[in-house]
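Attaching the record inline, Q. Sequence:
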Amino acid sequence: MSAEASVIERCICLRSIDGGSELRTLHPKLRAVSGLLVAAVLVLAGCGEDAEPTAAAPTTQASPTFPVTVTDGAGKQVTLSKRPTAIVSLAPTPTEMLFAIGAGSQVKAVDSLSNYPAEAPRTDLSGFEPNVEAIAGYRPDLVVLTDDIQDVVAGLAALDVPVLRLPAADTLDDTYRQLTALGTATGHPAEAEAVVTKMRADIQQIAGSVPKRGDKLSYYHELDQTLFTVTSDTFIGQIYGLVGLQNVADSAGKQGGAYPQLSAEFLVDANPDLIFLADTKCCGQSTETIAKRRGFAELAAVKDGRVVELDDDIASRWGPRVVDFLRVVAGAVTQVPEPVPTG
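Structure, as predicted:
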């Protein structure tokens, strides 16, 4: 699994022992966030009810013809001789994608961290400690995962089980490509296309609804309380960029990669206009807890009530719910008033 992917989904996955989050952090906690995006992901949806997945539009198109060959996120061509009817998903984001494109009835088992949608057949399978024998016990005709850990792909190939790998996305285009690949592989190309089309339209509408500002607002996106964060070179950072936000971590990213760890001193000096907490479920962080950190009570975002508590899962997963993530971010930006001209 790539370092960035590991960080994101591991960040989220590791954070939540009960499966609440997919992204965790890059350090020891990384052992546990989904192929990862970690980071990602994306977390801006607040602490309310989970949003409904983007629904696939109904279609009267004839059933796709098999066999089909698709290229997965790792650049490997995967051929399926027939429409899969026993799919196993070993990561939360692919699970969300499968149900969003109308392939939910074909899914027989998902990993322990796949907590959305509620009807997903959750098991004790793990994408971070995959057990080929346990996976094979569900007699899958397609396995979808984010990373090839412990040579699970080779192990499944030895059993003639097709595997589609969908690593953590770096951009929204990666998300669209993965949805399209899943649509082809599962026999739902039209539904997948409809999901992508709606996502593009919704994202364009939300981003376009945010008023242009004279000066860009700055932000800090927190993956966990040890101050791991994301730069603009991540899919999460791309979401923030759609509404004109400037990432205070970008300068730190030159040394720390796409998911650097900041210091408290760095953040106090950067003094971001907005703070987004993607560690509310995994790590119990909130507006109140962040205000108690040394020096943080003086941050503009804290003093002016611009700390946004996100849903860890939504902010870390690069599936259809990135639209909900963007909607929360856009709402937060819209509520920040323009400074009053002086002189």
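The longest helix spans residues 189-208. Residues 85 and 145 are 17 Å apart (CA to CA).

More tomorrow.
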